[in-house]
Fold:
Amino acid sequence: MSTRGRKADLKAVDGGLSGVPKAPACIPVDLVPEWDAIGRDMVERKILTTPSLGLLESYLVARWTVRQCQQAIVEHGLLVSTAHGMRKPNPASGLLSKALEAVARLAAELGISPAARSKQGFGSGEKPKNKGAPDGLDI
Structure:
């Protein structure tokens, strides 16, 4: 799966949801507040739709996977012993790498990351009064 190239601009959607639905049962309890916070943010930006709920769910499951992998690495170390006593990389390291990639990609698609928000279509639509110059400059 390739993630190269320019990503589509996120724009307000007609028929977007006006509220955040209850988190699905597959979302771990400790991530439900994040579901609500991201959902509220997406509602404010008018980009939360029924199909985008799947993206939000995938993002949070990927975040949970990252946490679980980190915990497994802390408990067992970066290297684990095989049945024959040989050392090999902890399988959680590979899972962690893939989960982090998914988190980064989904965060960009949802406009969660600061880099994604700086792109056209993610902002609040308000233009700064001073054209972005520091206070005190006469522009």
